[in-house]
Amino acid sequence: MKSFFKNNGRRFLSALLMIALTVCLVSCGTVETSDVKRLKLGVVIYDEGDLFLKEITDELIAQAKKRSKTSGEKLQITVSVRYARSKQNIQDDQVEDLIDNGCNVLAVNLVDRNDPMDIIDMAKKNNIPVIFFNRELVLQDLNRWNGLYYVGARAAQSGQIQGQECVEYLKQHPEVDRNHDGKIQYVVLRGEINHQDAIIRTDRSINTILDNGIPLDKLSYEVANWSRLQAENKMNQLLESYGNSIELVLCNNDDMALGVLDALQKRNLSRTSYPVIFGVDGAKEVLSDIKKGLIQGTVYNDGKTQADKVMDIAVRAFEGKDLRGLSMTDGKSTYVDYQKVTIDNVDQFLSLK
Ligand code: BGC
Ligand code: CA
């Protein structure tokens, strides 16, 4: 009898313990999940082949992991990326899809910076903050709703720096004027026709050179849509037309500068007949070509910091925090500075890559 009570008492006690443990596990579990805030960032990119945007996208993904970790997993950031194959209607559908799938903040690299209305309408209707980046919409559209932001860099600054680099180089290297006519024969390889960086970079770069008293002789402007391959083709055509009378090539970005170099190298021309080449972005391959003396300068476009700023805004907007601490222009836009890169300081930038 005694042992009957003893055994059953033990069983009763262990059953009680089990119940207590289960209750604790269940309740602790609930506490934990309800404590975790889930930021689902939907990222849409105009096209998959763009080197500079790959850098920004990779950094957004890295930042999401890093910030989730440092929050002690209290803030879980997940990133979903879609590429729009250079079609605005595809991008609009992708945004709709991301919203249907529960994204609560959007980072948008517009295809057509003049056509953001569908995205703005959807975001406003669903109360989802949008951070546009790199392809700058007009201020009037940015002001359509208070949940809209922009992160980028000032196109004029990049043109000005490219122009200054070119002026300094030409002053130190009079041999660039190969035909000794006192003018520099030049061509420009442009990005997409409506992109703020293509329009403003070109104007500012040329005007900076002219303002510094260097006479220019324009041979041709060619659109190569930021693409290395298109730039190689265009440069081949230019070489057919102008041969080695091209003394200077200004490129709106580094991928196109690499395309220009591809065309020159595939023709087995002697190095002395190469024109001087300037780009924008600070792509790794261009940095090493600057070191080799094949490209004379670029302008560092700090994609990592731009991604960081996008994430800062995304997190604060998601948490409903005041964004004033981020000191944005008009409380809406952030511009990251461009930096000069030539043979004199290229090592400093190579170490960042
Ligand atoms: C970059 C280009 C890039 C373009 C895409 C520009 O700011 O310099 O390399 O292709 O943005 O929108
Ligand atoms: Ca000349």
Short description:
49% of the residues lie in helices and 18% in strands. It has helices at residues 2-35, 51-70, 88-100, 117-126, 139-142, 155-172, 196-211, 228-242, 254-266, 284-291, 303-319, 346-350; strands at residues 37-45, 75-83, 105-108, 130-133, 148-152, 184-190, 216-223, 248-251, 276-278, 297-300, 333-335, 339-342.
Give a structural overview.
- With 353 residues, this protein is α/β, with parallel strands linked by helices.
- Helix content is 49%, strand content 18%.
- The protein contains 12 helices and 12 strands.
- The chain has helices spanning 2-35, 51-70, 88-100, 117-126, 139-142, 155-172, 196-211, 228-242, 254-266, 284-291, 303-319, 346-350; strands at residues 37-45, 75-83, 105-108, 130-133, 148-152, 184-190, 216-223, 248-251, 276-278, 297-300, 333-335, 339-342.
- The strands form 3 sheets. A 6-stranded parallel sheet has the order 2-1-3-4-5-11, sandwiched between helices. A 4-stranded parallel sheet has the order 7-6-8-9, with helices on both faces. Strands 10-12 form a two-stranded antiparallel ribbon.
- Helix 9 links the parallel strand 8 (248-251) and strand 9 (276-278).
- It starts with a helix and ends with a helix.
- The relative contact order is 0.12.
- Residues 1-5 and 15-32 have low confidence and may be disordered.
- The protein binds beta-D-glucopyranose and calcium ion.
- Calcium ion binds next to strand 6.
